[in-house]
Give the backbone structure.
Amino acid sequence: MSAVVGVYEELQTGPGQVTPIGKVEDVNRKEVSIEGRVTQLWDADSPAIQQVGLLEDESGRTKVTVWRKSDQPWLEEGERVQIRGAARNWYEGRVSLAVTGWSSMFFPERGRWWE
């Protein structure tokens, strides 16, 4: 049974898969894909940063930094976002994510005309 669970967890966090935020620190790659809701945004302390905030799903939350040179769309508090190719960083023992020019951001709830 433990082998089955181990294989399942490896597949869940494998390349190209959306990784639960709570599992991001366990991934053995530099980049991950995640999906969650923007719960908080705050002013950046550097002109090189476009936005900084918290992204959360049912498994956890993490800090996300969107670099100005990444040329990405702006995040809004409360909306869902899927980020592909976010770079993993470590700061003071915690994992965080950086949206770079190699990353892609998708907003599944934006442009839903029927609401």
